[in-house]
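no rush on this but wanted to send it before i forget. theres a chain ive been looking at and ive put its sequence and its fold in token form underneath. please have a look and point out which stretches look like helix strand or loop to you. thanks a lot i owe you, the record is right below:
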Amino acid sequence: MCMNNVWGTICDHFWDEKDASVVCRMLGYSPYGASAIKDTYIEGIWYIHINDLNCTGTESSLWDCPMNGLHEYSCSHYDDAAVACQLTDVKYSTCTTGEVRLADGATEFEGRVEVCENRVWGSVCTVSSSNDGNAYTLCHELGYQGGIVLPNSNFGVSNDPILIYELSCGAFQSKLNTCVENKIELYGGPSSRHGNVRVCVNGSWVMVCGYNNTVIDNNLASVVCPALDTQLMCYGNESSLFDCQYNTTGSCPNVYNAAVAVFCLLNDDYTSVNCTDGDIRLYGGSRPNQGILHVCSNGIWGTVCSNSKWNNIETDIACFQLGYYSYGHSSIRGTTNGLFPIIYSYFNCQGNEATLFSCSSGLHSSIQYCTNNVIKLNCE
């Protein structure tokens, strides 16, 4: 949206289909069938203009809706709001979001599955093998005892939009919209891009556990529990956790303390540099021996947050790794322009390490607020 002649984004706090309807109406699309999408990302060259937008859905403009300004640290670009609009000729009805029905069947007991979103009926696409759990859940929601799946558009192709792309229901779900297959989310962190890992399997959330597992690194996951009690082994080239190898052994006591956590980076062009893990460099300085410290992790360059753990010992080791003397240097706080993600919140060295990555290191929940507080070195 444009404010004071400057384009900017909207924070997704309170973002829902009513807000999405107003946006689509302003853009010349139908307000019906508008989907509110949260936790998207726009590279931080835009301002975040507003927060807590709360439309009724009938407004002709966002500026007619109640809203708040952005409070400090209340939202980041990882919380940018987005919408999916339908064309103006989309058919709309009085249905309620979440309703399901059967269409184009010979009897009331069969038909193409359709769901309602924001007063628009649409179909469900599935590319996986048939799942009778899906049929059971749908039929149970419609008041029947059970059913079977008839794949491959058995009742014809719908002219309405596709609203759901994959389902995975067990035999105990009572609603179809609780069964979105293979959904993965991060929870318990300060933003949607880092936190503890959990996955949705057969309509239930299960956590990924690292208890007693020595192979957790950038490629390998660990034990999925408590519901699965399964060891999950990934090699880094899979497109989904559900493509990984697994067996039915393993356990995860005290899962809340043993849960695996990750920090995710966006698939932007600037991260595709394919550096070698463990490499470091100085970037943006006026001379080769000075600049913001960059570290390579999992094939990308990133920065290090400055905090009380970084001192002369860490600076010694970093400068020595770069080929400079381990004395006559200084470390200061620098700023980054946002082109490189902040990967590490700290390195903690003992002084006898040959490289920075031989030291202990880690991420921290406040890392997203470290933009103006990264390590900058002046080696000699």
Q: What stands out?
A: The radius of gyration is 25 Å.
